[in-house]
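Hey team,

Filing this mostly as a record. A colleague (T.K.) asked me to run one chain through the structure pipeline before their review meeting, and I want the input and output archived in the tracker in case anyone asks later how it was produced. No errors, nothing strange. Just documentation.

Input sequence:
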Amino acid sequence: FGGIAPGDISTNLMSAAITSAGASQAGDMMQDLKTGKLLGAAPRKQFIAQLCGICIGILAAVPVYFLFTKAYKLGGDELPAPAAQAWKAMAEVLNEGFGALPPHAVTAIIVAGITGIILAGLRQISSIKPYVPSGLAMGIAFIVPAYYSLVMFYGLVVWLIWKAIAPKAVEKYNFAVASGLIAGEGLMGIVNASLTMLEVKTLADLMLLIKTGPGQIIRYLWSFLQ
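Output structure:
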């Protein structure tokens, strides 16, 4: 699409996003199928479940996207969208060249690339591998907002304390607790965005909202999304 529509940011960004999303989801689904095979699940039933998940995901993702973009500014502090910012920067570079980048950005890219290669090489040495930081983890920390890194750090501290107190419980419930926290954060994000749209700032506002009834709340949110 870059050759067909040069300089058209929307077309190139859309095609790149579709390609990236398709490849990412295909990788996730193949991993699910492999896991199911190892556990003895029927591939046909897994495929049907994935199709159902796609339909449910479409019905859920589109309204949630409109809810978040109505409640927050896309790319702002509440909804930073780091992946979208990275794609935006890539589209601007392809459209305008390296002149679209901030001063010294090219130098920073070269230094970061060399650092990543060095770290990857050092991690191949088994004697020092535990002490060499992950280049991927460092890269993510540079992309996401600071509070995400802080939350990860707090979670690590809690996990270490939990492991010291009850190592058997950590081994048994580690992934279940982590998955529940991730899912809970996502669900509470939807609730928080809804309350933001409804201008609920205090407990009194929340109590008044509850008294209006669920029907009024749903109609009010729907009027915002239209």
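Quick notes for T.K.: The first helix runs from residue 9 to 39. The chain has two domains: 1-81, 145-226.
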